[in-house]
Design a protein that fits this description.
By secondary structure, the protein is mainly alpha-helical. The chain is built from 7 helices and 5 strands. Keywords: DNA-binding, Transcription, Transcription regulation.
Length: 190
């Protein structure tokens, strides 16, 4: 199998499709657990299989997922897999059209909401969870004085660390589980 690349999203319709909260979650489930049948996606998200099928077709029509028929046990079972290893986009690709710019702003807001919600879930986790993972989970932030070029360099370095950790072969284990890590570097004022 060839290595999947990170997809550069330049179409606002694709950005809108992947920004829907359930579709974003479905993409996350596929990224974490690999190809899944509709039934497993429904169980993992607490949704009806018919609803999952609808959203998977929307994602397919945008080229974000594809069927994995070789995994199906029969013709009724539908398996899905992500087409790319990840997604990225640039505001420059949507700046010339006010409608596309509005889609971009909504997508970025929904994306940030999803990221913050995952962190909030961790902080709301029970004492047992906190006892096991509390010393390992982290939050880090710094105020830096950077040029745009230096921020771009920092971005490349952070993505390289993420890529190295996500590409490594790690056997499943009793204490190994999905961990969400994210970073933002934006100009701001304290």
């Amino acid at each position: 199998m060839t290595e999947r690349q990170v997809r550069q999203v330049t179409d606002s319709r694709v950005l809108a499709a992947m920004s829907h909260p359930l579709r974003r979650r479905l993409l996350d489930v596929l990224a974490v657990y690999g190809p899944q049948p509709v039934g497993a996606l429904a169980e993992r998200t607490g949704q009806a299989p018919a609803n999952i099928s609808h959203h998977m077709k929307v994602l397919r029509d945008c080229g974000l997922v594809e069927e994995a028929p070789e995994r199906a046990r029969d013709k009724r079972e539908r398996w899905w897999r992500p087409v790319s290893a990840g997604l990225r986009w640039s505001g420059r690709d949507f700046a010339d059209d006010p409608a596309e710019s509005a889609v971009l702003q909504a997508a970025e807001s929904l994306n940030l909401d999803r990221q913050v919600a995952l962190v909030r879930e961790w902080y709301a986790a029970g004492d047992d969870e906190q006892a096991v993972w509390g010393e390992s989970a982290f939050a880090a932030d710094r105020w830096l004085h950077l040029t745009p070029e230096e921020l771009a360099e920092l971005n490349r370095e952070i993505l390289a660390v993420f890529d190295r950790w996500s590409a490594r072969d790690a056997p499943d284990g009793p204490e190994r589980r999905p961990v969400f890590v994210f970073a933002h570097g934006v100009p701001a004022q304290p």
